[in-house]
Amino acid sequence: MFSRTCEYGIRAMIFIAQHSKNGARVGIREIAAGIDSPEHFIAKIMQELGRKGVVQSVKGPNGGFYLDDKGRECTLAKIVRMLDGDQLFTGCGLGLRQCSEAHPCPIHEEFKKIRQEIGAMLENSRIGEFTAKLDEHQLFLKRK
Questions:
Q1: Of 4, 43, 69, 71, which residue is least crowded by CB atoms under 10 Å?
Q2: Residue 108 near residue 99 (C-beta atoms within 8 A)
Q3: Cα separation of the two ends of the chain
Q4: Where are the domains of the chain?
Q5: Is 14 helix (H, G, I), strand (E, B) or coil?
Q6: Quick one: average pLDDT of 83-87?
Q7: Which residues contact 134 (CB under 8 A, 6 or more apart)?
Q8: Taking the domain 4-84+126-135, which CATH number applies?
């Protein structure tokens, strides 16, 4: 459903929210280990998210990434749009460019409902809301 970039980006943002909630900063190595991703790949993703203003960073020996209150309120939908574009929210289930209300593909109506439900879930999910359940080990971010 998401690109690998988007999967890692969402997981990284949730990981950072969990580990920076008390003012700590999280380095690339720690993020990569915590979400089971390659360091170089997650570094590029974090650089992009930093440029777009959803995550903050500080350089230097005590530096790293962190989220402020605004970052914790960022929706998963915003991260998806930043990293994958709008295709998930507007695209055809069969990947057809000409699919529309006026010229629907065979799965248009059913896929439209699914796309709307996924969009609503992503719009209503904020990065910071997952931290308590992660702390309680009700959720996880890394493959075992």
A1: 69
A2: yes
A3: 21
A4: 4-84+126-135
A5: helix
A6: 94
A7: 14, 18, 140, 141
A8: 1.10.10.10
Q: How many Å apart are CA 60 and CA 114, to the nearest integer?
A: 45
> How many C-alpha atoms does 117 have within 13 Å on its Cβ side?
6
Q: Around 86, how many Cα atoms within 13 Å sit in the side-chain half-sphere?
A: 1
Q: Quick one: which H or E segment has residue 58? A: strand 56-58
Give CA–CA dist 16/27, Å, rounded: 9
CA 139 to each of CA 80, 81, 124, 133: distance values in angstroms, whole numbers, following the listed order: 20, 24, 18, 6
CA distance 127 to 113: 24
Answer whether 54's CB lies under 8 Å from 76's CB: no
Could you tell me the pTM of the whole model? Answer: 0.90
In whole angstroms, give the CA distance from residue 72 to residue 51: 17
